[in-house]
TrEMBL record:
<keyword id="KW-0121">Carboxypeptidase</keyword>
<protein>
    <submittedName>
        <fullName>CBPC6 carboxypeptidase</fullName>
    </submittedName>
</protein>
<dbReference type="GO" id="GO:0008270">
    <property type="term" value="F:zinc ion binding"/>
</dbReference>
<feature type="active site" description="Proton donor/acceptor">
    <location>
        <position position="195"/>
    </location>
</feature>
<feature type="domain" description="Peptidase M14">
    <location>
        <begin position="1"/>
        <end position="232"/>
    </location>
</feature>
<comment type="similarity">
    <text>Belongs to the peptidase M14 family.</text>
</comment>
<keyword id="KW-0645">Protease</keyword>
<dbReference type="GO" id="GO:0006508">
    <property type="term" value="P:proteolysis"/>
</dbReference>
<dbReference type="InterPro" id="IPR050821">
    <property type="entry name" value="Cytosolic_carboxypeptidase"/>
</dbReference>
<keyword id="KW-0378">Hydrolase</keyword>
<dbReference type="GO" id="GO:0004181">
    <property type="term" value="F:metallocarboxypeptidase activity"/>
</dbReference>
<dbReference type="Pfam" id="PF00246">
    <property type="entry name" value="Peptidase_M14"/>
</dbReference>
<dbReference type="InterPro" id="IPR000834">
    <property type="entry name" value="Peptidase_M14"/>
</dbReference>
């Protein structure tokens, strides 16, 4: 039907943004950030409409439902830290990872699909603000391109810190979604861990810490979603008038 978004028409090429959250059950803020992303994307906001027309969002909001149900802090029902098993997830022991990984590989092998972003949402117990972890590449130009999204997010979200964002290849993190998929996907894909503080963010000086609320976490999610508008340079397609955007830092 003609009402279909351009990118959902049969045979159309799709740009996919894949988002996962709550692989560590105790990191509850990640669910609120993810909720903010989902609520914004399905809303009637003019930016959300443009994003739905040009991108496909695949979201797995809870990768560790059994761990969440049991009230575990880090592990699944069977005692696994799922975020160390991306390399070879078992359909029996790590079913959610296995399912998501199969879907990602399927999309990666489909010539009509460009899997452009993978973002895994976590919460951090010792750092303030929102920030990202990215991967290290030998190719300098790819490394520079990877910094674009967090820089744009920093302009949209007052609680997001680019100075806390880091790019690493720590051996301990080799089994994480970001590291494993960063090695699997090609150089047009960007894989990030989005971290947000359990407790507060800083505005202005180091003494002015603002406690996070559920609403503030969801606002960060909304700002993550709207940053794709800047990244893909779709601003000219948004119907005016626009809601006022937060001042850049």
């Amino acid at each position: 039907p003609t009402s279909f978004a351009v990118n959902l028409r049969p045979g159309a090429e799709q740009k996919v943004v894949f988002i996962t959250a709550r692989v560590h059950p105790g990191e509850t803020p990640s669910s609120f950030v993810c909720q903010g992303i989902i609520d914004f994307l399905v809303s009637q906001h003019p930016i959300a409409k443009v994003l739905r027309d040009h991108l496909v969002f695949k979201i797995a909001p809870m990768l560790n439902p059994d761990g969440v149900y049991l009230g575990n802090y880090r592990c699944s029902l069977m005692g696994f830290d799922l975020n160390r098993h991306w390399a070879n997830p078992s359909p029996w022991a790590h079913p959610t990872l296995h399912g998501v990984k199969q879907l990602i590989i399927e999309m990666y092998n489909n010539p009509k699909i460009n899997l452009e972003f993978y973002i895994d949402i976590h919460a951090h117990s010792t750092m303030m603000n929102g920030f990202m972890y990215g991967n290290i590449f030998e190719d300098e130009e790819r490394f520079q391109r990877q910094a674009v999204f967090p820089k744009l997010l920093c302009q949209n979200a007052e609680d997001f810190s680019y100075s806390s964002t880091s790019f690493n290849r720590d051996a301990v993190k080799a089994g994480t979604g970001r590291r494993f998929l960063g090695g699997l996907l090609n150089d047009t894909s960007y894989c990030y861990t989005l971290e947000v503080s359990f407790y507060s963010y800083v505005l202005g000086g180091p003494t002015s810490a603002v406690p996070y609320t559920e609403e503030a976490y969801m606002k960060l999610g909304r700002n993550v979603a709207r940053t794709f508008l800047d990244y893909y340079r779709l601003n000219s397609l948004v119907e005016r008038p626009l809601a006022p955007t937060p001042k850049t830092r």
